[in-house]
Amino acid sequence: MKKLLLVALIVTIFAILIIFFLPKKNENMIYGVSFNQEYNAYLGFDFKKVFHIILDDWKFRHVRLSAQWNLIEKKQGEMDFADLDWMMDESASRGAKIVLAIGQKTPRWPECHLPDWVEKMEYHERREHLFNFISAVIARYKEHKALEYWQVENEPFLSFGACKPLKQDDLAEEIQFVKAADPFHQIIVTDSGELSSWRKTAKASDIFGTTMYRVVWNKTFGYWSYDWLPSFVYTLKLWLN
């Protein structure tokens, strides 16, 4: 009898979770795409041709790009924005809106995109140069017609990629720095959908972004499926935060 009651209790709790936290169908879903110039080069493609396919053939009007530090400031104090300028301008000419990721940890492996010349610097010195770079990026694009949001760092507290997880105070400092430099665009902070509770990120800034991976791979377990994870878990985590 006790076992039956326990099973009934578990089923009831599960049903309540489904009823209250099952995501509702969004009839106004907007689809966008992320584009990484460095990975595009690794695959051997012309980034301008691919970007035109994204905008003109696939008709995406919401794109996430990165102001990738190691590509723009390859030599200390020498910043080359030509490629990013081109993508921003091409987006603006078509009415596309850009989420522009800034920081040292931006989308795409190995995520930590530091220029070689800062690798051996002490942490505080590296941070000083990072803020100089972020300041230059904001000054250049804060009034650009294509810019819709800033994304500050990418999954900053997740131990993934070459970067160590960011300290919570350091992320807050970067967000405040961006807000002071550009008070007119909202800021997105992202976190892993499956490997985080979102405790540090859900309320860190204006907008929260997360992932929903169904199949992943790592060298220890090979392919791993998240099909067992109910979709309402994401809604529940957001509610708890």
Task: Explain this structure.
- This protein has helices spanning 2-21, 37-42, 47-57, 69-72, 82-93, 123-141, 168-181, 232-240; strands spanning 33-34, 62-66, 97-102, 147-152, 187-191, 207-210, 215-218, 222-225.
- It has 241 residues and is an alpha/beta fold.
- It has a 6-stranded parallel sheet with strand order 1-2-3-4-5-6, covered by helices on one side.
- Helix 6 (123-141) runs parallel beside helix 7.
Quick one: overall form?
globular
Order of helices and strands: HEHHEHHEHEHEEEEH
Approximate helicity band = 25-40%
Oligomer state of the chains in this structure = single chain
Helix/strand/pairing class, anyone? alpha/beta
- Cα gyration radius (Å): 20 Å
Regions with pLDDT < 50 over 5+ consecutive residues? none
Strand order of the largest sheet: 1-2-3-4-5-6
- Number of helical segments? 8
**Count of extended strands:** 8
Distance between the termini: 37 Å
Strand composition percent: 5-15%
Mean pLDDT, all residues = 92
Tell me about the largest β-sheet.
6 strands, parallel
